């Protein structure tokens, strides 16, 4: 018998009371306990990014996070991104950009790619290249200075077996408001 905990998880704006084995990952809670199967399980070992969600606005591999450590934090999965403050209601601008730029083929990696992209675009001023300057008044980085190389680097934790990378990079550049998205 392994130790279990009663926890409350806040996911996509809703609180869920759960009794879970302490070793349960956030990924398994999302998929198996709450039926939020938009978040995918690829490797289950932190290698592929398919399970990426946002925790307090930062991208996290949910297969590597114990659900008990996510208590009292704001979790957003792909099912909730459109309802984010910048979400646009029906489709988040990053989701729209993935559609417009064919940033997906089979779609298995896509929820993770999109959550990762939203997290990446929110990483204002933290380790961004020097040409992506932070506006000192607003504290917001000028994401439109991103280029394809930087986006590839920032998104390198999310693998795509279908090789939809060109479309993914274009989509992220567009969502960033970047000028001159790369040629295909
Ligand atoms: Fe989590 Fe692959 S399933 S990184
Ligand atoms: Fe198939 Fe990325 S679209 S794995």
From TrEMBL:
Segments forming domain 2Fe-2S ferredoxin-type: 5-81
Coiled-coil intervals: none
Keywords for this protein: Iron, Metal-binding, Oxidoreductase
InterPro entries recorded: 2Fe-2S-bd, 2Fe-2S-bd_dom_sf, 2Fe-2S_ferredoxin-like_sf, 2Fe-2S_ferredoxin-type, 2Fe2S_fd_BS, Aldehyde_Oxdr_Iron-Sulfur, Beta-grasp_dom_sf
Keyword Repeat recorded: no
Keyword hit for Oxidoreductase: yes
Residues spanning the membrane: none
Protein name: 2Fe-2S iron-sulfur cluster-binding protein
Organism, scientific name: Streptomyces javensis
């Amino acid at each position: 018998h392994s130790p279990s905990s009663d926890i409350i998880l806040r996911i996509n704006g809703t609180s869920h009371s759960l009794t879970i084995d302490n070793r349960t990952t956030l990924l398994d809670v999302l998929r198996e306990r709450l039926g939020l199967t938009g978040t995918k399980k690829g490797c289950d070992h932190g290698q592929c990014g398919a399970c990426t969600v946002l925790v307090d606005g930062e991208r996290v591999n949910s297969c590597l996070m114990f659900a008990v450590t996510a208590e009292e934090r704001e979790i957003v999965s792909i099912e909730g991104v459109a309802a984010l403050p910048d979400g646009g209601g029906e489709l988040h601008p990053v989701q729209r950009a993935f559609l417009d730029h064919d940033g997906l083929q089979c779609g298995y990696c896509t929820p993770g790619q999109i959550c990762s992209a939203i997290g990446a675009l929110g990483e204002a001023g933290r380790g961004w290249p020097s040409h992506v300057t932070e506006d000192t008044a607003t504290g917001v980085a000028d994401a439109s200075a991103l280029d394809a190389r930087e986006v590839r680097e920032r998104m390198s934790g999310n693998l795509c077996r279908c090789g939809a990378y060109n479309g993914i990079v274009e989509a992220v550049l567009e969502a960033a408001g970047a000028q001159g998205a790369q040629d295909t």
